[in-house]
């Protein structure tokens, strides 16, 4: 019996519309909480997660064993697996979110009009967020904490491969909510994992304010194609490192090793290495030797293979691939403009890196590319909400809407106008009394 069928048999799940309505109602309670009240709840969530670490790890071990028996891809199992350090990271992320400034009620702009009206732009919660994701159990806690801090309710629809982990994490979060007399529906785990339920969820335009899919290409496309609610996509991470002619080779080598080998299944891992032709003969054999020690398979163009004899030939598809594995596409590039052109053609607007000592080249690289995160002389692995000061992220938006790049609590609010006057009318003749 698969996990989705198991869930349906164990629980007569409420209709998704009922769950969404309950979550939306709970969201009004969350939206009214003070900053200190939200922080107290978040600290309670972190403490309960830490106290239930063994339960979470046991549930995760059950998920990992089932995933291995089912033959799931290594990258997905890597994303699924939790250890003690992983639970500690989840706890730390919730604490860091609690310490962030409260975005709700922030006045981002204030001006006085000639007629005396005071115009403010003020942040308010989005409302009800539907988080649809695969694998990664940490997303359950991250999304819940970020949505809560931003005054929102959240529907969490994880994948069947992580159902036991997600249940254990959600149970800890619900315990903290109950302890503060808050409705559990503010953090709702959708346990009916059928595709039909997701389809219904994506049609709830009168209840759900935003859907955020996070997972493989198939999941993202499914949500984007079937949603009637607004969608922000966490799409592929086809991330590039361009090593410029002026680059410090030691620095560039560190960026390549860190970006490709520390966690190849992550969306911010490097997938393509572009090397300027003027330094290729010196740099490419060196980086190939270091990556080979770490088990990385290189696939390159003819010029690259002429310098590294055992490099495999790259196909056109390799340059557009998100390998999520110890595989790296390589190409020797004529100049900066050629590197930019390559990234524009094959990139996914996620994360790009330049290694250079030329400030003008760095500035051109930054301004020429529209990717969500662009780094100069720093590893692609910093393209992460936690590393960029957000505490955690609900995803990395590659959709150019109100949020772009790593999304933290602030990205789960919107700005509205608040106008204060003292009796002003636009048309004097209409106000004669």
Tell me the number of helical segments per DSSP (H or I, 4 or more residues long): 15
> Low-confidence runs (pLDDT<50, min 5 residues)?
3-12
Tally of separate domains? 2
Question: Per the principal axes of the C-alpha atoms, what is the gross shape?
Answer: globular
So what's the CATH class of the largest domain?
Answer: Alpha Beta
| CATH architectural group of the largest domain | 3-Layer(aba) Sandwich
CATH topology tier name of the largest domain: Aldehyde Dehydrogenase, Chain A, domain 1
Mean pLDDT: 94
Beta-strand fraction estimate? 15-25%
| Helicity range | 40-55%
Number of E-state strands: 16
List the helices and strands and how they pair.
Layout: H1 3-10, H2 16-31, H3 35-51, H4 53-70, H5 74-80, H6 84-99, E1 107-112, E2 118-125, E3 128-133, H7 138-149, E4 153-157, H8 163-179, E5 187-189, H9 195-201, E6 210-214, H10 217-226, E7 239-243, H11 249-261, E8 270-276, H12 277-293, E9 297-300, H13 302-307, E10 312-313, E11 327-333, H14 336-346, E12 351-355, H15 359-368, E13 373-376, E14 395-397, E15 405-407, E16 413-420
């Amino acid at each position: 019996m698969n996990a989705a069928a198991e869930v349906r048999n164990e629980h007569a799940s409420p209709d998704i519309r009922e769950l969404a309505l309950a979550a939306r109602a709970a969201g009004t309670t969350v939206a009214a909480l003070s900053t200190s009240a939200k922080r107290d709840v978040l600290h309670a969530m972190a403490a309960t997660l830490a106290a239930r670490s063994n339960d979470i790890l046991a549930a995760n071990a059950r998920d990992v064993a089932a995933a291995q028996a089912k033959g799931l891809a290594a990258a997905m199992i890597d994303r699924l697996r939790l250890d003690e350090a992983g639970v500690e990271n989840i706890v730390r992320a919730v604490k860091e979110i609690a310490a962030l400034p409260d975005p709700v009620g922030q006045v981002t702009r204030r001006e006085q009009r000639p007629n005396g009206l005071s115009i403010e732009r003020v942040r308010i919660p989005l409302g009800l967020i539907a988080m649809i994701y695969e694998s990664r159990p940490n997303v359950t806690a991250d999304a819940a904490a970020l949505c809560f801090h931003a005054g929102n309710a959240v529907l969490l629809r994880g994948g069947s491969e992580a159902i036991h982990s997600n249940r254990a994490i959600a149970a800890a979060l619900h315990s903290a909510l109950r302890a503060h007399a808050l409705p559990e529906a503010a953090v709702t785990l959708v346990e009916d994992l059928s595709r039909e339920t997701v389809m219904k969820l994506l049609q709830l335009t009168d209840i759900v304010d935003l859907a955020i899919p996070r997972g493989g290409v198939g999941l993202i496309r499914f949500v984007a194609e079937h949603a009637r609610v607004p969608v922000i996509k966490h799409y592929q991470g086809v991330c590039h490192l361009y090593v410029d002619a002026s680059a410090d080779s030691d620095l560039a080598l560190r960026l390549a090793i860190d970006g490709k080998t520390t966690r190849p299944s992550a969306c911010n891992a490097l997938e393509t290495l572009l090397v300027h032709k003027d330094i290729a003969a010196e740099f490419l054999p060196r980086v190939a030797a270091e990556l080979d020690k770490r088990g990385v398979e290189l696939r390159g163009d003819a010029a690259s293979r002429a310098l590294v004899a055992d490099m495999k030939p790259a196909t056109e598809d390799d340059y557009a691939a998100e390998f999520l594995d110890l595989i790296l596409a390589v190409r020797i590039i004529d100049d900066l403009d050629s590197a930019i052109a390559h990234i524009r053609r094959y990139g996914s607007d996620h994360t790009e890196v330049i290694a250079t000592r030329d400030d003008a080249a760095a500035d051109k690289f930054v301004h020429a590319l529209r990717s969500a995160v662009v780094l100069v002389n720093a590893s692609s692995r910093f393209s992460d909400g936690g590393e960029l000061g957000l505490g955690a992220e609900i995803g990395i938006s590659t959709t150019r809407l109100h949020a772009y790049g790593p999304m933290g609590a602030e990205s789960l609010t919107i700005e509205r106008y608040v106008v204060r006057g003292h009796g002003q009318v636009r048309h004097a003749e209409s106000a004669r009394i």
